Amino acid sequence: MLMKIKTLIYFIIVFLVILSIIAFVMSFWLGFVSSFRLVFGLLYILFIPGFIWSYVFFKDEKAVDQKQIATTLKEDSRIDFIERIILSVALSLALVPLFIFFINKIGVKINVLSVFLEVLSIILIGFAILFVRFFLDKRKKNEN
Q: What is the number of domains present in the chain?
């Protein structure tokens, strides 16, 4: 478990460094603030909400251990990491515009702050569902 967390942290750091380099290169054409806003804004809008909700809709990655193959076949709601990345973009492209559309129908004006807060609420709702599911699963394991 600790190794998986270290690998995840390493992956996040490398990913952020690559995005920073891309934003720095784009700053020659767009300006420094605009390029960072574009790169990290696209990440915030087009990836993060779908990535969180992919864990809500689907469980962890597929098992690679031979002992867990039988249980993986029974629980077919697991997806691979590459599938999760692609699905994250698709879920974000579906969830964010629909949420903004329905919030706009309620009467909230669409501007930078409202979109930021609406996407943040999509992310926080997904985290809350995962948090509740984690503690319910933990309680279920303790009872058994």
A: 2
